[in-house]
Write a structure and sequence with these properties.
InterPro entries: SGNH_hydro, SGNH_hydro_sf. Keywords: Hydrolase. This protein has about 210 residues and is an alpha/beta fold. It has a single domain, classed as SGNH hydrolase (Rossmann fold). It has helices spanning about 1-10, 40, 50-60, 85-90, 115-130, 150-165, 195-210; strands at about 30-35, 65-70, 100-105, 135-140, 170. Strands 2-1-3-4-5 form a 5-stranded parallel β-sheet, sandwiched between helices. Helix 3 (about 50-60) packs across helix 7 (about 195-210). The chain is globular, with a radius of gyration of 23 Å.
Amino acid sequence: MIVVMALLTGGCDGGIRGAPTPALARPAPPVMMFLGDSYTVGSGPVRSWQTYASETARLMGSQPIIAGAGGTGYVNEGRVGRTFRRSFEVQLAWRPAPDLLVISGGHNDRRWSTRRVRQAATTLLREVRGHWPATRIVMVGPIWLNGAPPKGYRVRDVLAEVAGAAGVRFLDPLRRRWVTGEPSEVLLPDGVHPTLAGHERLAAWLAAELS
């Protein structure tokens, strides 16, 4: 009887010989959220999983969550009828806090006064900070790949000031030269939105800056 019990229990050490070793759980990747306009969510043939936002997260080994809509901005509501602040509230605020939130835009706010843009950006940052106090926030200014209008630079300057006052890092795409050959290599036929190659250039730049 003692021999039988030993066989059934796998010996005196109480273990089952030959049992598979449980796999160690992999740590969850960092969560990287993006809030932006058509550059961020995709436009034309470029879908959300192909934009610079998704590619940046891939390069950084992060899980992307992308919010916003084409035509929107800090003030501009676009066709969806909501600003960045409203997109944050309905698409992101109910989720657990991310490791990093990138707010990218301003391109569509050039028709509004810089005073309105300043107000709206300040309010958005205050709301995000109050909701997720431990989350790292980075602001990316308006994106033009082939020359911005004067008002685009004024919007950029206002957003940089807002970020500085809030202690948030500001990254400026307008300081870069994106077109190095034919514009069609980085711009879709509309002359505004990036091709896949354009998104890849944006992602490589942003991932390097965030690293």
